[in-house]
Amino acid sequence: MSSLGDVFLTFPALAAAARAFGRPVAVATRAAYAALFKRHPAVDTVLTLPAREVKGKDGVAAVVARINEETKPDVVLDWHGVPLARAIAARVAAETKVRYSKLGARRALLATTRLDFLPRPTIRVPELYVRTLKAWGVTAPDWSFRLDQDLGAAVRLRNTLGITGGAVALAPGARWETKAWPAEHWRALAEKLAAAGRRILVVGSGSEVALCASVAAGLKGAVNAAGKTRDPAELPELLRGAALLVTNDSALAHLAPLVDVPALALFGPTSPRFGFAPWGTDDRVLYLGLECSPCSRHGAAPCWRSERQCLTALTPARVYAAAEEMLGGA
User: Fold this and answer.
1) pTM (whole model) above 0.85
2) Angle value at C-alpha 258, between 177 and 31, nearest 5 degrees
């Protein structure tokens, strides 16, 4: 309900859930993500939560009433685990209610003490979601799930931005600045890729337009697409067809597998052990694993060093070499 990346991570699990239940699936989410869930073929109904400041009869109670009166669910799956989700689930009249385990205590222990008691091999978040479906015989997400193309959005983006397939997509932004690879590193990477004849597509949110412009500036054929999508539901068409995505530990890393784009994800204050690494078979993670990493479960904690060595020491040359290797050097 609060993170675009978490929305994308539900998609392989939703596909598995729909098959297991063999009945309509309804999703309750924030209005910003409603259009994305409507694109998922397993979702029949999307109920939008009110803005956080809305209280009383027009607040969460109204959503609970809609769930009880319109969808009348047999099963409630809480795939968020926050107090709001728990409150909604508690008030919904369903025979069965299941909440997934975030392994939050173990993640917190790793972030604060570097003691790692998380399961091995690493359990990815979609796999945690489907653990709530064990009683229905589901043992794994549908890793084969892909989002069908929205032709209208694809044509609009192509006509307005001139986007064509085969570009290297760079996503320099992140929800938390402490999770972002330095802007000067992104620029150096873009220059190296452009010098090797790669076309550059820089992607980001409306708040990241200036950052993305600084990465793309002056590079022949580079396209700055930051803030150019009408809503999150167009993001798949922005990324679809790219030869590679290079990204921070952020939402687009979780979208890339859904549109068959290999992802190279850069981790610093967070750890791939938390289960948030991209899950595509051709994906790759670069993570220095310094003695002070990870220092935060979500990347929001300020760095106690003079500089964020977990990301500053990850050089553009190393990232470029990994990107070229993934691209096949052609």
Assistant:
1) yes
2) 65
